Each structure stands twice: as structure tokens, then as C-alpha cells.
From TrEMBL:
<dbReference type="GO" id="GO:0006298">
    <property type="term" value="P:mismatch repair"/>
</dbReference>
<comment type="similarity">
    <text>Belongs to the RNase HII family.</text>
</comment>
<dbReference type="InterPro" id="IPR024567">
    <property type="entry name" value="RNase_HII/HIII_dom"/>
</dbReference>
<keyword id="KW-0963">Cytoplasm</keyword>
<keyword id="KW-0540">Nuclease</keyword>
<feature type="binding site">
    <location>
        <position position="124"/>
    </location>
    <ligand>
        <name>a divalent metal cation</name>
    </ligand>
</feature>
<comment type="function">
    <text>Endonuclease that specifically degrades the RNA of RNA-DNA hybrids.</text>
</comment>
<keyword id="KW-0255">Endonuclease</keyword>
<dbReference type="GO" id="GO:0030145">
    <property type="term" value="F:manganese ion binding"/>
</dbReference>
<dbReference type="InterPro" id="IPR012337">
    <property type="entry name" value="RNaseH-like_sf"/>
</dbReference>
<dbReference type="InterPro" id="IPR022898">
    <property type="entry name" value="RNase_HII"/>
</dbReference>
<feature type="binding site">
    <location>
        <position position="33"/>
    </location>
    <ligand>
        <name>a divalent metal cation</name>
    </ligand>
</feature>
<feature type="binding site">
    <location>
        <position position="32"/>
    </location>
    <ligand>
        <name>a divalent metal cation</name>
    </ligand>
</feature>
<keyword id="KW-0378">Hydrolase</keyword>
<feature type="domain" description="RNase H type-2">
    <location>
        <begin position="26"/>
        <end position="213"/>
    </location>
</feature>
<dbReference type="GO" id="GO:0043137">
    <property type="term" value="P:DNA replication, removal of RNA primer"/>
</dbReference>
<keyword id="KW-0464">Manganese</keyword>
Length: 213
């Protein structure tokens, strides 16, 4: 007799959206970010209002998907969603505001880019950002809410494309491969080339390099 796995993978659903829609009587978007941890590049955010009657199959937390699968889902999400928006906060804004507030700025821009404005947002994590609508935080939301999971995919694919562009602009750092995160190739490039304008100079590893220069 076949046995179910002890901890079967739970896929995101629209359960949280359904409850919140009934409460606020209006559109609800999912919001997520990509790029809070890297040493270089902007932070991105996306907001998505899904159509419950036209859901792309296979939406999941972007971290649980391959790059190829994210790339395939991105146009499907954009084509079938009621509305979607992407926003960025630049390296300069990260340095000026700090990464937390820059993330909130990117989220605001993503929501403002929606063609249909939501009454409320489901936001991944436990920090209640000030956004242009009511906010409900969801810890582990990208694995629970389909709207947040869809937003995580759009935020990730948008930022990855931008990091590939930065790789062409600042060759030698390997941005196209590691997307600005800590990686041996990135560490070695920084030791050889020093930081470029795409680096977050207030980050401790970059700051240490500047101090030693």
C-alpha cells in the first residue's frame, strides 16, 4: 500500500485572499520582494491581483521553482492577472533609506503601478510596511498565498533581468550568475576590481573593502 510522505509539500491557495476579500469587499493583491540580501543591485517588489477564474497552473514560491519555470510562469501571470505591477528601489535609495524602508518604497511603487487599485494587500513576512492600502502580513506567505507567490515570481524575474543588464554594464563581477548575492566569484571580483557603482557600499563586506583600500 502506498503511503503519503510524512511532510507532503503544501502548495499556496487563495484561502487567505478569499477571507480578506469578504472582509474588505474589494480587490486584494499579493505583495513580495526580491533582493533584500544581495551585496549589489536594487531591491524589487511586485504586486499581483489574481483572477480566481483564470489561474496559471504551477504558481509557487519563487524560491521553490527553477529559473526556467519562473520564466515560463511570468508571462502567464501577467496575461491572466486582473492587474500586476513591479517596482524598484535603487542602490542609492537603499543607501539613503536603509534596506527595510527601500523595500517598502519598492512595494509602494509596485502597488501604484497596478491598473486596478486594491483595497488591501497580503504581504509576505511579519513587517507591516506603510502601503497605499490596508496591509495584512503573512509569515511564509509566498508558500501559503497564491497572490504572494505570483508576486514573488514577478519580483524575482524582474530583478534577475536587471542584474543581467548590470553584468553587461559592469563586467567581471558575475552579476548575471549570482545576481549580486554573496558567492566566491563575487568575493574574488571585489578583491580584484573593488566595488562598482552597483554595489551597496554600506553593506559590511563592501565597507570593509573600502576601508582596506
Amino acid at each position: 500500500m502506498a503511503r503519503a510522505p510524512a511532510n507532503p509539500k503544501a502548495f499556496p491557495t487563495l484561502a487567505l485572499e478569499t477571507v480578506l476579500i469578504q472582509r474588505v469587499n474589494g480587490h486584494v493583491c499579493g505583495v513580495d520582494e526580491a533582493g533584500r540580501g544581495p551585496w549589489a543591485g536594487p531591491v524589487s517588489a511586485a504586486a499581483v491581483i489574481l483572477n480566481p477564474d483564470d489561474l496559471p497552473p504551477g504558481i509557487d514560491d519563487s524560491k521553490a521553482l527553477t529559473e526556467k519555470r519562473r520564466a515560463a510562469l511570468e508571462p502567464e501571470i501577467k496575461a491572466r492577472a486582473v492587474a500586476w505591477g513591479v517596482g524598484f528601489a535603487s542602490v542609492e535609495e537603499i543607501e539613503e533609506l536603509n534596506i527595510l524602508h527601500a523595500t517598502g518604497l519598492a512595494m509602494c511603487r509596485a502597488i501604484e503601478a497596478l491598473s486596478v487599485q486594491p483595497v488591501a494587500a497580503l504581504v509576505d513576512g511579519n513587517y507591516r510596511f506603510k502601503l497605499p492600502c490596508d496591509v495584512q502580513t503573512v509569515v511564509g506567505g509566498d508558500g501559503l498565498s497564491l497572490s504572494i507567490a505570483a508576486a514573488s515570481i514577478l519580483a524575482k524575474t524582474a530583478r534577475d533581468r536587471l542584474m543581467i543588464d548590470l553584468d553587461a554594464q559592469y563586467p567581471g563581477y558575475g552579476f548575471a550568475s549570482h545576481k549580486g548575492y554573496n558567492a566566491p566569484i563575487h568575493q574574488n571580483a571585489l578583491k580584484t576590481l573593488g566595488p562598482c557603482p552597483a554595489h551597496r557600499r554600506s553593506w559590511s563586506p563592501i565597507k570593509a573593502l573600502l576601508q582596506d583600500a
